[in-house]
Design a protein that fits this description.
By secondary structure, the chain is α+β, with helices and mostly antiparallel strands. It folds into two domains: 35 residues; 123 residues, Rieske [2Fe-2S] iron-sulphur domain (Rieske Iron-sulfur Protein), CATH 2.102.10. It contains two helices and 13 strands. The strands form two sheets. Strands 1, 2, 3, 4, 5, 6, 11, 12 and 13 form a nine-stranded mixed β-sheet that branches. Strands 7-8-9-10 form a four-stranded antiparallel β-sheet, with no helix packed on it. β7 and β8 form a beta hairpin. The longest helix has 27 residues. It is globular, with a radius of gyration of 21 Å.
């Protein structure tokens, strides 16, 4: 005995939706859109005056150097170096790998992996250090901190394109 037509339609519709949902998840995971961005902890491999050298991050994610108060982030073909503190009230920022963003634990200001401000009490993006590449190292100039609201062009240029 076969199922009534309504039940057959319902089962077919569920199967179709399950297949589509699986394809969407597979597609997003394959492009990195649904995958978490890892967080690593480390320190500069070398110090020269106000410069700190770090290995070029092998993949997207964030490396936190709490000794030098630097966050090194690789995201979508670029590397950024940020001050560890939130620009609002200087609380240490947190990396939320599952949400793929930074957040201030004090007032919940949120930032994209490139430091762009999303929401919260802060009024600008994360403060960036000027960076350059030297072979397989990222050189961060701790004496060259750029604030988005005071120097938009300098802030936009404080990025290492890979």
């Amino acid at each position: 005995m076969s199922a009534p037509p309504c039940l057959q339609c319902s089962l077919a519709r569920r199967g179709f939706l399950r297949t589509i949902a699986g394809a969407v998840v597979a597609t997003l995971t394959g492009t990195g859109q649904a995958a978490a961005l890892p967080v690593r902890f480390g320190v500069a491999s070398e110090t020269r005056g106000d410069e700190r050298r770090y290995p070029l991050p092998p993949s997207d994610g964030a490396t936190i150097d709490d000794v030098n108060e630097v966050i090194l982030a690789r995201f979508q073909g670029a590397v950024y170096a940020f001050n560890l503190s939130c620009p609002h009230q200087h609380t240490a920022l947190r990396w939320l790998p599952e949400q793929r963003r930074f957040q201030c634990p004090k007032h919940k200001s949120k930032y994209r992996p490139d430091g762009v401000f999303l929401s919260g009490r802060a009024t600008r993006g994360m403060d960036r250090f000027k960076v350059r590449r030297d072979g397989q190292q990222v050189v961060v100039d701790l004496d060259a901190l750029v604030q988005q609201d005071r120097d938009p062009a300098g802030w936009g240029a404080a990025v290492l394109r890979l």
